[in-house]
Amino acid sequence: MKNLLILISIFLFVSCQQYSTQETFSPLGNGNAPQTFEELWKDFDPQKEPLDTEILYEWEEEGVIMKVLRYRIGIFKGQKAMMAAIYGYPKGAKKLPGLVQIHGGGQYADYRAVLTNAKRGYATISISWGGRINAPGYKVTPDIVKLFWENKTDNPDYKIITDWGAVDGYHAPCRNPDNNFNGVSAALWTLDSIESPRNNPWFLGAVGARRALTFLEQQPEINPDMLGVYGHSMGGKLTVLTASDPRVKAAAPSCGGISDNVNENPLYQKTIADNVYLKEISCPIIFLNPANDFHGHLRDLPKAVNLLKSKEWQVVSAAHHNHQDLGQSEVTGLLWFDQYLKGTFNYPETPESSLALKTKNGIPSFSVKPDASKPILEVDIYYTQQGENSGEISDRENRMNRFWHHAKAIKKDGNWIADLPLLSTDKPLWAYANVLYSLKEAVTGAGYYYGVYRVNSFNLSTLIHIATPEQLKAAGVKNTMEPSLAIETFEGDWQKEWFTYKPEFWSRKTHKVYNDKWKAPENAKLAFEVRAAAPNKMVVGIDKYATEIQLKGGPGWQPIVLTANDFQNALGEALPDWTGIMELRLGTKETLKEKIDFENKKLDLGAEWTGEQPRFKNLKWIVN
């Protein structure tokens, strides 16, 4: 009997050793790479392998248990890959919903997301797929990532981080400079030796995120049936790739996951592109996608939601913003999890909306009917003629700088209706609406870049409506808008056509000067009047150029007149003329940057503001 037990023990030990070191993915049979989503993922069981969890650093903060740790991603080409992450949960809590938070390109796994979520009753793991970590007492910068790669354990800054082993899932920098997020080709550091979707870093990141779900469901303080995932930018795409996992009960990608569908490689298109994964998502999902985002294109949102298996979806699209947002939009992801993971919130239905082209006066009309189940603070209708025509390749600079007109809406029988006067019928018309709702209680969270916000309202959007020039002309639409030298009156709702990412300061930006209505005439001067109670410096910026203005202070209005040559960049070069300008800024101070001969040049302008905020009037072009 004793010998039998010894033999069984030896067998179990050997079996466990083999199990713990066997490859996560089997070698390709007959040299054939996976050709579809199903083939790519059919043999992957994210719950199969042990996690081999390592605690690297631990602390408690404001009643929250926080840990920097690593868990096993898998075994690739004979080497173990380990994901570093920050994990945290409210001390003593049980049956918590769990969240996987996925950083964007060049970003960090960050303790602020974990901490703020824990205070709201969530356990969160912020994964460091790119290699960097931001935590008190455990900061991993790109330089420290390189120390890890070079195994410089004797360096006092050395820290244990994410280890992709024989493959390369790092980013900013990648361990191998030629690592290709847009391809499926083979390299020394890829999983397969032939063209294969398993070579792509997006695939590796999704594997790591799905293993994070496994980590969460095995923690004693977590309810394994209530897991969510969210991420920004590249993390937004990885959120969409991960949300196909049936364990995900809610997802909230921001600025990614809808537009990575243009790739010349057909194998990439069939296995890695966003559309492939959107079709597999059956959980409730909310897309946080600013209207001018360079990475998630607004026009792709209707296509994305139409691909979903899930019928539970919402969209949030702040006008003018690119890859950043304010708390009233960022908070919508947290509220989404409150509804579907905690059952403590009920979202209003998506606002009903319509675009009418055939009207009596020849001016298009937009109508929105929001769900009034929660108090409505504002309804804002936006439109632009700087969007692409259907099938046209989207220009990045145009996408980031397109101007959105704010149309004054009139409420009638529960509908908000606004006319959309146009400058031309030769360009498409894009229109949508935002509805701002109030919250019963303020909500605190960490935003796209982990800045902590506290808000009393949240934003909800309609999908974009698009009319082609052909449709405009067929409907008898008239050109009723005229070009204007007057750019801004600074009266009424003027700030709806300007924007900021720091609303606590008075500085504002606008893309009005990029729009044909306010295009600068040749040899024009830019003029406005400003009144500041105290002497101050202010900055006026145009794209990468700016100028500093000394304000006298006092009760009177100070006239300002500027030529293009008054603006300079960080190298001291003057703006030659107004041709092609896209962004106008009024603010307190700026740091202009340029790179020349691999050296960064900076120019600091302006100063801290003192006293009451200034007032402006009569921003215009003047022609002699």
Question: Could you characterize what this model shows?
Answer:
The structure is a single chain. The protein has 624 residues and is α+β, with helices and mostly antiparallel strands. It has three domains: 32-283, Rossmann fold (3-Layer(aba) Sandwich); 352-482, Sandwich (Immunoglobulin-like), CATH 2.60.40; 494-622, Jelly Rolls, CATH 2.60.120. 18% of the residues lie in helices and 31% in strands. Helix 5 (201-217) packs across helix 6 (234-242). It is globular and about 80 Å long. Mean pLDDT is 95; it is low at 4-19.
What shape does the CA trace take? globular
Q: Which regions have little confidence, pLDDT < 50, spanning 5+ residues?
A: 4-19
Q: Which secondary-structure class do the elements indicate?
A: alpha+beta
Mean pLDDT: 95
Number of strands: 30
- Tell me the fraction of residues in β-strands, as a range: 25-35%
Q: What's the CATH class label of the largest domain?
A: Alpha Beta
CATH architecture of the largest domain: 3-Layer(aba) Sandwich
Task: Assign the CATH topology of the largest domain.
Answer: Rossmann fold
Distance between the termini: 107 Å
How many domains comprise the coordinates?
3
Question: Which range best describes the helical content: under 10%, 10-25%, 25-40%, 40-55%, 55-70% or over 70%?
Answer: 10-25%
Trace the largest sheet across and list its strands. Answer: 1-2-3-6-4-8-9-10-11
